[in-house]
Amino acid sequence: MPHRWLLVLAAILAAALALLGMLQYRWIDEVSVAQERRERGAMELGARRFSDDVDRELNRAMVAFQGAQVDPFEIAHRYSDWASSARDPRLIFAIYTANANEIQQFVPREGQLVDTAWPPILFEVREFLATLQPGAPGRRPLIDDVPALLVPMRPQPRRPPPPPELEPEERPPGPDGDYGSPQRRPQRNDGGPPLPQFLIAIIDRNYLSHDLFPELARAAFPAGEADLAVLDADRIVYRTNAAWPRSASDVPEVAVPLMSNRPPQERDLGPTRWRIVVRRHGDSLADTVAKSRLRNLVLAFAILFLLAASFALVAVLARRADRLRRQQLEFVAGITHELNTPLAALSSAGQNLADGIIAEPPQVAQYGAMIVRESRRLIDMVGQVLDFAGIQARSGPRRVESVDVPSLIDDAVAHCRWLAEEAGVKLETQIANDLPSIDGDPSALERAVQNLVANAIRHGGDGEWVGIRAERSNGAVAITVEDHGRGIAPRDLPHLFEPFYRGRDASRVRGTGLGLTIVQEIAAAHGGNVEVERRRQRGAAFTLRIPAGQHG
Question: CA-to-CA distance for 406 and 411, rounded, in angstroms?
Answer without folding.
Answer: 9
